[in-house]
Amino acid sequence: MFPPVVTQPQTYGVTLSPVCRAYTGAVRNTPDMQAWTQAAMAEPPPGEVPA
Fold first, then answer.
1. d(Cα 39, Cα 34) in Å, to the nearest integer?
2. What distance in Å separates the CA atoms of residue 48 and residue 9, rounded to the nearest whole number?
3. What is the average per-residue pLDDT within 20-24?
4. pLDDT higher than threshold 80 for residue 35
5. What is the structure's pLDDT at 33?
6. Which residues contact 3 (CB under 8 A, 6 or more apart)?
7. Residue spans per domain, the chain
8. Kind and range of the H or E element at 10?
C-alpha cells in the first residue's frame, strides 16, 4: 500500500469509478492507515514549531 494513491483522489477532489472508490475506502479503513492518518493529523502545520 502506498498512502498517496488512496489519499490524493480525496484531497484533490478526483472522481473515481465505483471499483476504485471501494478500493480506496477499504485501504483507508485498515487499522494501519487509520493510525497513520491520526498521527499525521496530530503533527503541527508546516512551518509551525511546537513549543
1. 9
2. 26
3. 94
4. yes
5. 94
6. 33, 36
7. 3-38
8. helix 3-12
Element holding 22 (H helix, E strand): helix 18-28
* Of residues 50 and 14, more confidently modeled: 14
Determine the angle formed by the axes of helices 31-42 and 18-28, rounding to 10 degrees. Answer: 70
Cβ neighbors of 27 (< 8 A, separation 6 or more) are 1, 6, 33
- Please give the model's pTM, rounded to 2 decimal places: 0.72
In three-state secondary structure terms, 1 is coil
Concatenated DSSP letters of 27-51: HHTSHHHHHHHHHHHHSPPTTPPP-
Provide the grid cell at 49.
514549531
